[in-house]
Design brief:
The structure holds two protein chains of two kinds. Chain A is of the alpha+beta class. Chain A has two domains: 111 residues, Beta-grasp domain (Ubiquitin-like (UB roll)), CATH 3.10.20.30; 121 residues, Alpha-helical ferredoxin (Fumarate Reductase Iron-sulfur Protein, Chain B, domain 2), CATH 1.10.1060. Chain A is 34% helix and 13% strand. In chain A, the strands form two sheets. A five-stranded mixed β-sheet of chain A has the order 2-1-5-3-4. In chain A, strands 6-7 form a two-stranded antiparallel sheet. The relative contact order of chain A is 0.13. Chain B is an alpha+beta fold. Chain B is built from 17 helices and 19 strands. In chain B, the strands form five sheets. A five-stranded parallel β-sheet of chain B has the order 5-2-1-9-17. The longest helix of chain B is centred in the last third of the chain and has 25 residues. Chain B is globular, with a radius of gyration of 24 Å. Classes of the chains: A alpha+beta, B alpha+beta. Bound molecules: flavin-adenine dinucleotide, iron/sulfur cluster and FE2/S2 (inorganic) cluster. The site of flavin-adenine dinucleotide has 44 residues of chain B, from helix 3, helix 6, strand 6, helix 7 and strand 15.
């Protein structure tokens, strides 16, 4: 480990350009010299600065926190959602993961549910529709009981947290050959379904969220690519849990309404 | 420009009478109510869906108001609140260590260096306990002990453990709670959600706020929206420095455009520096990353005793290391408050003793802690932070000390609001970090999340009703009224203007240059010549910006440079006001350190006789100096005292 500036490498970027949702896209090639200390998105910032200088429109891409927590960023890098590094969102990836002379193909998240907005930016709003369908606990402001009235076993709280860590980036959908949103949906179902507070609506929530998901996204055939791409390493176990709850919910909600 | 401003009438915050502990309870009873059936006859606009905005929009929707919520993000869940790590304060006193509403109130007033409004702070401390109940009921997975009860820790030098946390992702979990409450109301039809919509103007009719104008960031369409009241929850302005720990899109535009419509802007010079961030590494740096304050519990801060020492840390013998905080502040050592730690880091770097390739950092060294507690114990506590540091810098903090430097983190200044959280424009409210709020000249750790949610869940939903009750039966101003068509035209013209300049440099270029000036002269330490310099350099650069910026593309598509152009223009105006505010505040307090005003030991020296007031600035039109109004602060419950950390 040295204390010093990173070295400069030369990379060839093949960047997807698309003027709008209905336009046809194309790859554009740029040769870029960049310090290995730069983050991947700072490398795109530098490219954009140069394009602007040359009178060419900058590449549209999205990011906000640049700390791996808001879920705004996300592109395909050499065919992989969020790129080569495990458990790392695009904004946390640094150029020291690349070598001099590398060719880097940069595309938007590609999924049936995520239409391209422009260049590398896509529309992920269907994920909000899934939450809207039931990804909450129905408690009005002011109606909450004293927080320590209901102890929550530490294991349950920890597991719920593992699911709640999802940042809603949609990489799981982009990585899936079927554009399925099972990992995202199951993370929310798992988060709320594992907590005592979430029990009252557990079955109705699972049913309506799964059905909203199916409206927008493809179906899961257990490839597991989603969890591989996930920057928060959300476990496939949550999908299993959601499937089990969904089966139960179907039976309960139909025949035993009000009796669980 | 810098001649002292004339004394104007005292601003009235409309604080209710009575004992501090009874004010809010009594006031809630005396406010006008809107009966449940009538609430659906009122339209309320909420701009921003961070903790403050999402909690407000959800709560207003639950009450039955017709709410329209706006965010420029693609989803409400992406607001900058999501990035908060450390935790949220509440006076629950679960650890039985002597906390109380009064102690939280007292600590907040003192921590704010006696520059906040007592009545608001007390109310904040009162409702803090309800926030934890609400969030827990929503499913926020706060840390728990083995008995399954909520766990607390001490944070930011507090002497009691009152901070609730959810691993290092407290902001994320609280925001997901507020966001899901909001989406529940969207599903219920009480809230209409407009994402990717940016507020570009606030509209008034007969002196009252009657709506807003937004631009759809995908189609470029400019649209008027009318309502009986408008709430801004649009966050802080730390990005005026270009480099800060704030998310890339944080900006002052909503607050600033409201300011131009008559909302006073209070204490713009109160900005907060966080001492433990990763230093700047290169010219292309786009933002700074915060390393949690908790690291100072085990890390020792030092620089070499000699100047321009280029040896790697390991080669600097113990006798040639200066543990300057431990040396100067034996009682608090590495745990002195944020502002003190920050200024001392600046001093040693300015002296030429900074470390790292750019000599712009100080060491935060864990070697002693690792040999004392073992590698495993340290990795259990800080493993994810060490990994994050490693990923960003390529250096392994288990093997060599971290390098840290202060960065801008939070802004205490913002739109002035009264006890009801209403700005000086009737019908226009401001909540969360965007208002000048309850933190005075300095915010305590874990208190911003508390304030945003207090405003949104438990204060605004009451106070707004008092005002709306008087409007029953009145229709909203129709969006074809001339006030709206003019505002829409103004926004459309602005877009065209940016696209037509066709200069040579990018928006980011100017933003970066502006940030350099603001950091240099209105950053960690300020003085009169520097501030005067800022007051000539900022307008000069602004002129260049308006004539030489190059914004390509069209206004009818997603155009990120175009979005940024308007935001940076507002930052220029804000920066100028920050310099003026800092110049006129001839004292040091909290995050505002004037080098001319320090004690013999180099600590901040307040001037309570002349400056125990809020400075609230009134816009008088482009190119005209703003008027400085004052709200006098009365301290009836907390005695003024000088801070000392020796
Ligand atoms: C790295 C970091 C760590 C932090 N950690 C802590 C902590 O541990 N504890 C603590 O208490 N505080 C912490 N803070 C501070 C705290 O996170 C913020 O002060 C707080 O979350 C702000 O919330 P908000 O709702 O006021 O604004 P934000 O969360 O910033 O939300 C602003 C909203 O307004 C919208 N918006 C803005 N302008 C417009 C416009 N013109 N048109 C439409 N929409 C607009 C945005 O889309 C967004 O939805 C931290 C801050 C940082 C930077
Ligand atoms: S499950 Fe993982 S990949 Fe999918 S949205 Fe959540 S964080 Fe992103
Ligand atoms: S920009 Fe926030 S997760 Fe990448």
């Amino acid at each position: 480990m040295s204390e010093g500036h990173g070295e400069t490498i030369n990379v060839t970027l093949k960047v997807w350009r698309q003027d709008g949702p209905d336009a046809t896209g194309r790859f554009e090639v740029h040769h870029q010299a960049i310090s290995t200390d730069a983050s991947f998105l700072e490398m795109l910032d530098v490219l954009n600065e140069q394009l602007n200088e040359a009178g060419l429109e900058p590449v549209a891409f999205e990011s906000d926190c640049r700390e791996g927590i808001c879920g705004t960023c996300g592109v395909m890098i050499n065919g992989r959602a969020h790129g080569p590094q495990r458990a790392t969102a695009t904004c946390q990836l640094h150029m020291r993961e690349f070598r001099d002379g590398d060719e880097i193909v940069i595309e938007p998240f590609r999924a049936a549910g995520f239409p391209v907005v422009r260049d590398l930016a896509v529309d992920r709003s269907p994920l909000d529709r899934i939450i809207e369908a039931g990804g909450f606990i129905s408690v009005n402001t002011g109606a909450a009981a004293e927080a320590n009235l209901t102890p929550v076993p530490k294991e349950a709280a920890d597991q719920a947290f593992d699911a709640a860590a999802c940042i809603g980036c949609g990489a799981c959908v982009a990585a899936c050959p079927n554009s399925a949103a099972q990992l995202f949906t199951s993370a929310k179902v798992g988060h709320l379904g594992l907590l005592p507070q979430g029990q009252a609506e557990r079955w109705s929530r699972t049913e309506s969220m799964v059905e909203a998901m199916e409206e927008f996204f493809g179906s899961c055939t257990n490839h597991g690519e989603c969890s591989e791409a996930c920057p928060k390493e959300i476990s496939l176990d949550f999908i299993a849990l959601m499937n089990r709850d969904y089966m139960k919910a179907k039976i309960r909600n139909r025949s035993l309404a009000g009796q669980h | 420009m810098s001649s002292p401003s004339p004394v104007t009438p005292r601003l009235d915050a409309k604080v209710p009478v009575g004992a501090i502990a009874d004010k809010w309870q009594n006031h809630k009873f005396s406010m006008n109510l809107v009966n449940p059936n009538n609430k659906r006859r009122f339209d309320v606009i909420v701009v921003g869906t961070g903790l403050a905005g999402a909690s407000a929009a959800a709560s207003l929707g639950e009450l039955g108001y017709r709410v329209k919520a706006f965010t420029f993000h693609d989803s409400p869940r992406r607001a900058h609140s999501i990035a908060a790590q450390g935790g949220i304060n509440a006076a629950k006193n679960y650890p039985n260590d002597g906390d109380s509403v009064h102690r939280l109130f007292y600590d907040t007033v003192k921590g704010g260096d006696y520059r906040s409004r007592e009545a608001n702070v007390h109310r904040l401390a009162e409702v803090s306990v309800d926030i934890i109940d609400q969030a827990t009921a929503q499913g926020v997975p706060f840390a728990r002990d083995y008995g399954g009860l909520l766990d607390n820790r001490s944070f930011g030098g507090a002497q009691v453990s009152r901070t609730f946390y959810a691993r290092g992702q407290t902001g994320q979990q609280l925001l997901i709670g507020a966001y899901s409450a909001l989406m529940r109301q969207v599903a219920a039809g009480t809230v209409e959600l407009h994402s990717r919509s940016e507020l570009l103007d606030v509209v008034k009719k007969d002196g009252r706020a009657c709506g807003i104008v937004t631009r759809d960031l995908l189609s470029g369409e400019v649209t008027p929206h009318s309502a009986h009241a408008v709430v801004l929850a649009t966050g802080g302005y730390g990005n005026v420095y270009f480099l800060s720990t704030n998310a890339m899109m944080c900006n002052v535009t909503a607050a600033w455009r409201a300011h131009k419509q008559g909302a006073f802007f209070a204490n713009p010079c109160y900005t907060q520096i966080h001492p433990t961030c990763i230093p700047v590494s290169d010219d292309f740096q786009s933002k700074l990353t915060l390393m949690s304050e908790s690291l100072r519990n085990d890390g020792r801060i030092w620089v070499p005793t000699t100047f321009d020492d280029a040896r790697p840390a390991a080669d600097v013998p113990e006798s040639e290391r200066d543990y300057y905080l431990e040396r100067k502040y034996p009682a608090f050592g590495n745990l002195v408050p944020r502002d003190v730690a920050s200024r001392n880091a600046k001093t040693v770097c300015d002296e030429g003793r900074g470390v790292g390739p750019l000599k712009n950092g100080v060491y935060l060294d864990f070697a002693a802690a690792i040999s004392r507690d073992g590698l495993e114990a340290i990795s259990d506590k800080y493993g994810n932070l060490f990994d994050m540091y490693h990923r960003i810098t390529g250096e392994n903090p288990y093997e060599q000390p971290m390098r840290i430097y202060p960065a801008i983190h939070y802004t205490m200044g913002g739109l002035w609001v009264d006890y009801h959280l209403m700005t000086t424009v009737p019908g226009l409210y401001c909540i969360g970090e965007a208002n000048f709020s309850d933190h005075g000249a300095n915010r305590l750790g874990a208190s911003a999340l508390m304030q945003g949610l207090a405003d949104g869940y438990f204060v605004l939903p009451y106070t707004i009703g008092d005002d709306l009750a008087g409007l029953l039966g009145q229709a909203v101003v129709p969006t074809n009224d001339p006030v709206f068509t003019e505002a829409v035209r103004g926004v459309e013209d602005e877009q065209k203007r940016w696209l037509s300049i066709n200069g040579t440099r990018s928006v980011d270029h100017f933003h970066r240059e502006l940030g350099r000036i603001v950091w240099e002269y209105i950053g960690m330490a300020r003085n009169q010549p520097g501030l005067e310099k800022a007051l000539t350099e900022i307008p000069a650069l602004r002129e260049e910006f308006h004539s030489d910026v190059r914004v390509l593309g069209s206004a009818e598509t997603l155009n990120q440079s175009l979005e940024k152009a308007g935001r940076v223009a507002d930052f220029f105006d804000l920066a100028e006001l920050m310099a003026r505010d800092a110049l006129e505040r001839e004292e040091s307090c909290g995050g505002h350190f004037r080098e001319e005003h320090q004690t013999a030991e180099g600590e901040a020296q307040r001037d309570d006789e002349n400056f125990a007031h809020v400075a609230a600035w009134e816009w008088n039109g482009d190119g005209t100096a703003q008027t400085r109004h004052r709200e006098e602060l009365d301290f009836e419950n907390v005695a003024l005292a000088q801070r000392s950390y020796k």
